[in-house]
């Protein structure tokens, strides 16, 4: 995809000549778009200098409940003060399903220092990307998202909220039944929705490269068009926005939970990353094969690629709350469900945490890493920031790959796999993430780690205090 157009404030009057309103939105820690509609007059007055936006979106959870432990960025003591929200003019697009209303993404800044606040997803990714750019390098990325779809059996309940009130989550009817991945007939059953998602993504500049059914009832998978990493993260967030918005008019509720149904595969959110120089040349590919490589898997991988891989492998356990951010995320990361559970890697190995893609199965220019730990429930900006941050730390420290690749036919978690087991719960993951001297602290800094850890500890506490349906069904009569 071509780079976003360099739009200036001087371009806005003509760009918005026939409009009277603009929609603005930024991302919170859960990757949820939060924003508002403003008049064109208001937007033109704030386009360069920015405007005040209540910091509470970094002080409450995904259901607008303030965190049980107040955090530094936004709390009662500072009055949930305003942040400085600055529109990114290069993010301009129009919302096809809302009468082509103009839309801009925003980045959140400290009103005093004018720097992006540490938990701002777009700012965090750009901070990690800047480390590469100082050396004249850049990064490319792609994202793949799987999601379940549920049908609203009662057309009078048009909104997902009323739909869920009338249907217990475990009884939601799937859009289609049975397991039929890569089916070319199943999309015909809901072809208006299926093609509307594809076409609307193109119109909203978050183009889909591949779009198909995945194994599972009512499950789809989209591979988004590969591109520059910061733009890719924006488009990944836009993709979820499109899917959910288009679903409303068809009475369809998409679900990006990591594991919506027990006994069935979960929803992955795999991310592909490569490094490039200023001319766009792939930096992970080796010009000539290294016949003396420690393993055949890396004989086509450059030295910088090997260090980057080592950084990912060394850091992945410490950033698990980013790659698996919710209680439910860890229900996906279990053995025998096409999801990685250990620190592992391998050439073209889909059972590993990190799949190396390159020669001989792919051309050198397509050499990349596919990080397979994240689920579809992740914040794409945080995930890509974590991949860049951990990988580049490996480059800077010239780390060596700490473990051998998985052999062909070898499953993660098997007797032959001696890789470190990834965290089995959010509580375990957060403890390692926020530990003194963690790689997460080294890469992101204490302010971000303390804030984000606090948001995840809030999820843990709420779950610890919850009484689940499973508990009621198991114990109501027998204990």
TrEMBL record:
Pfam families: Gln-synt_C. SMART domains: Gln-synt_C. One of its GO terms (molecular function) is glutamine synthetase activity. Keywords: ATP-binding, Ligase, Membrane, Nucleotide-binding, Transmembrane, Transmembrane helix. Residues 121-479 form the GS catalytic domain. The keyword Cytoplasm does not apply. The chain crosses the membrane at residues 43-60. It comes from the Eukaryota. InterPro entries: Gln_synt_N_sf, Gln_synth/guanido_kin_cat_dom, Gln_synth_cat_dom. GO terms for biological process: biogenic amine metabolic process; glutamine biosynthetic process. Belongs to the glutamine synthetase family. This is Glutamine synthetase.
């Amino acid at each position: 995809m071509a780079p976003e157009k360099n739009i200036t404030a001087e371009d806005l009057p003509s760009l918005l000549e026939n409009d009277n309103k603009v929609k603005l939105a930024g991302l919170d820690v859960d990757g949820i778009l939060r924003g508002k509609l403003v008049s064109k007059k208001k937007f033109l007055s704030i386009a360069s200098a920015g405007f005040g936006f209540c910091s509470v979106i970094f002080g409450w959870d995904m259901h607008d409940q303030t965190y049980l432990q107040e955090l530094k960025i936004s709390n009662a003591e500072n009055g949930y003060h305003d942040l400085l929200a600055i529109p990114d003019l290069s993010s301009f697009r129009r919302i096809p399903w809302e009468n082509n209303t103009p839309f801009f993404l925003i980045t959140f800044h400290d009103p005093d220092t004018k720097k992006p606040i540490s938990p701002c997803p777009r700012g965090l990714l750009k901070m990690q990307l800047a480390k590469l750019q100082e050396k004249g390098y850049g990064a490319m990325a792609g994202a793949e998202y799987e999601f379940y779809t549920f049908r609203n059996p009662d057309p009078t309940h048009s909104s997902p909220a009323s739909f869920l009130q009338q249907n217990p989550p475990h009884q939601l009817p799937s859009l289609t039944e049975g397991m039929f991945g890569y089916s070319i007939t199943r999309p015909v059953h809901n072809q208006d929705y299926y093609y509307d998602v594809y076409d609307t993504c193109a119109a909203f500049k978050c183009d889909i490269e591949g779009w198909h059914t995945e194994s599972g009832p009512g499950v789809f998978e989209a591979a988004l068009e590969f591109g520059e990493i910061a733009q890719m993260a924006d488009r990944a967030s836009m993709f979820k926005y499109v899917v959910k918005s288009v679903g409303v008019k068809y009475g369809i509720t998409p679900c990006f939970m990591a594991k919506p149904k027990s006994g069935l595969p979960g929803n992955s959110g795999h991310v592909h990353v490569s490094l490039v120089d200023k001319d766009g040349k792939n930096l992970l590919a080796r010009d000539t094969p290294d016949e003396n490589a420690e393993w055949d898997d890396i004989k086509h991988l450059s030295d910088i690629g090997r260090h980057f891989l080592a950084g990912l492998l060394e850091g992945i356990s410490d950033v698990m709350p980013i790659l698996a951010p919710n209680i439910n995320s860890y229900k996906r990361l279990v053995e025998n469900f096409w999801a990685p559970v250990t620190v592992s890697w391998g050439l073209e190995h889909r059972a590993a945490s990190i799949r190396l893609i390159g020669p001989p199965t792919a051309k050198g220019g397509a050499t990349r890493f596919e990080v397979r730990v994240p689920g579809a429930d992740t914040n794409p900006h945080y995930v890509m920031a974590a991949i860049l941050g951990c990988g580049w730390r490996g480059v800077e420290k010239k780390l060596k790959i700490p473990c051998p690749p998985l052999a062909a036919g070898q499953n993660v978690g098997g007797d032959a796999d001696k890789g470190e087991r990834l965290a089995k719960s959010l509580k375990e993951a957060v403890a390692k993430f926020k530990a003194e001297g963690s790689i997460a602290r080294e890469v992101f800094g204490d302010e971000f780690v303390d804030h984000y850890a606090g948001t995840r500890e809030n999820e843990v506490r709420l779950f610890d205090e919850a009484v689940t349906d499973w508990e009621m069904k198991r114990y109501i009569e027998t204990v």
